[in-house]
Amino acid sequence: MIKADTFRGRTVAVFGLGRTGVTAALSLVAGGAIVWAWDDNRESREAAQQQGVPLKNLEKADWSEVDDFVLSPGVPHHLPKPHWSAVAAKAAGVPIICDIEILAREVAAKPERARPKIIAITGTNGKSTTTSLIGHILKTCGKDAQIGGNIGRGVLDLDRMHSGTYYVIELSSYQLERTQSLRANAAIFLNLSPDHLDRHGSLKEYGQAKQAVFNNQTPADTVVVGVDDEYGKTLCTELKVRNGRRIVPISARRASGHGVSVLGGKLFCNMSKKSIEVCDLRKATALEGQHNWQNAAAAYAAVSAFDLDPKEIGEAILSFPGLAHRMETVGTLRNVRFVNDSKATNADAARQALSSYENVFWIAGGVAKEGGIEPLKDLFGNVRAAYLIGEAAQGFSSTLDAAQRPHHNKKTLEMALLCATKDALESGVKDPIVLLSPACASFDQFKNFEIRGDAFRAQVQKLMGIEATDAQKISTNGEGV
Fold it and tell me: Closest Cα to residue 334, out of 462, 415, 430?
């Protein structure tokens, strides 16, 4: 754990006692802060208290005594409606921060020679894959790399920093809007598409929150920008005009006179006079699809800033095992492949999987984002049939009706999987894919996308187990599972 020494003697209120909130509270306590922690949920409070977190009812607290307020990133301080704790903090003039800001202050307090390297990744889609891939590359190349932030461990739960440490941090817009001091040695901005607009108010405000990843960088630091969308192209141009940092555009669609790009499935680096072929991404089984090629380009551009050998980086990319819940193959039954893409919580994320496969038996639905699946109409030709679940089923059904695509409202994930599997097995098509790519948040039926994906995986394994026990049926045509 990283001790929050820079907060020693300060009174810090903490609201939201989930994974990051508990870690932040314990880090502050270890650093000598006076901590007042609270959560609206009694069970969360009790669990936190058992871990050593000091509780204080913030609804009855004197906020004039509070120096800083650590608010869980998922709790709004402005839109769509500020939480009561944020209202109280603002009224008392208390700064609202998050655990990323605590880490940033701890790093800044160290002498330059003792600081870890920070690689920060943001964007609407691809953050988790890129973050995990960078961590894998660094570890494969013998570096002490630790992954945290919006993925895996809370940043204050990472091992104590030293000069040889690499912190690879996934950052959401929710975290970035409460972070002022972070300096990233390499900052990645992958892409931007409409998401979380209820929280930020507009695409412009959402993009500005994401751009905070570049704050506090120096000319010695690296900026990596995806230029496969119009927002990224414009941002890259603006950044080049704005300052003299090392700016690396990345693309999975076109060659670049300067930057990192993918052509014909091969990853090229063109950041010096000589273009280097890094690796053939078509051999990277865990990085299927053009979107993952952009993620690989971003990862290469970031780690190359630290003088790693290009050949070793390429070999590490090809050995990447993949990310759970993101185009994750969880099994095959006869010729049917099951793909868990539960992390696709919006249409743009689901686009990546739908554009990567043909003959898709598509499970979609949950809590729909603005626009639903209308933006995916150009890919409906890849969908043999759709199996709809959750709150979005009715709206998605209307979209599919208009496109004259077969679909069935199955309500639950389990029923959708059973029907999709039956239809895929009986379809007679080549290499059918049963794909969970919901294009929706999970909160109507599951606590988060991980639990949704785990449920899909477990149900697939159950189906495979049932089939595997029927040895006579399998042996009649020589097929296995």
Answer: 430
Determine the Cα–Cα distance for residues 59 and 67; give it in Å rounded to an integer: 16
pTM metric for this prediction: 0.84
Percent of the chain with pLDDT over 90: 89
Mean pLDDT of the chain, nearest integer? 93
Domain boundaries, position 291:
100-318
Coil/strand/helix, residue 188: strand
Q: How far apart are CA 283 and CA 22, in angstroms?
A: 41
CA–CA separation, 164 vs 143, rounded Å?
A: 8
203 pLDDT exceeds 70? yes
Do 115 and 177 share a domain, yes or no? yes
The amino acid that residue 106 corresponds to is E
**Mean pLDDT across the stretch 445-460?**
96
Last residue of a domain, one of 40, 66, 97: 97
Q: CB-based contacts of 43: which residues, under 8 Å, 6+ apart?
A: none
Q: How far apart are CA 268 and CA 261, in angstroms?
A: 5
Which DSSP string do the residues of 352-416 spell out, in sequence order? Answer: HHHTT-SSEEEEEESEEPTTTTGGGGGGGGGEEEEEEESTTHHHHHHHHHHTT--EEEEESHHHH
Write the burial class of residue 6 (CB in 10 Å: 0-12 exposed, 13-18 middle, 19+ buried).
middle
CATH code of 435's domain: 3.90.190.20
> What do you get for the CA distance between the two ends of the chain, in Å?
44
Residue 376 lies in a domain: yes
Using alpha carbons, select from 8, 14, 4 the residue that is nearest to residue 68: 14
Q: Are residues 14 and 54 in the same domain?
A: yes
The tokens for 461 are: 């394994």
The answer to whether the beta carbons of residues 123 and 191 sit under 8 Å apart is yes
- Cβ atoms within 10 Å of 290's Cβ, excluding its own: 17
Kindly report the CATH number assigned to the domain that includes residue 248.
3.40.1190.10
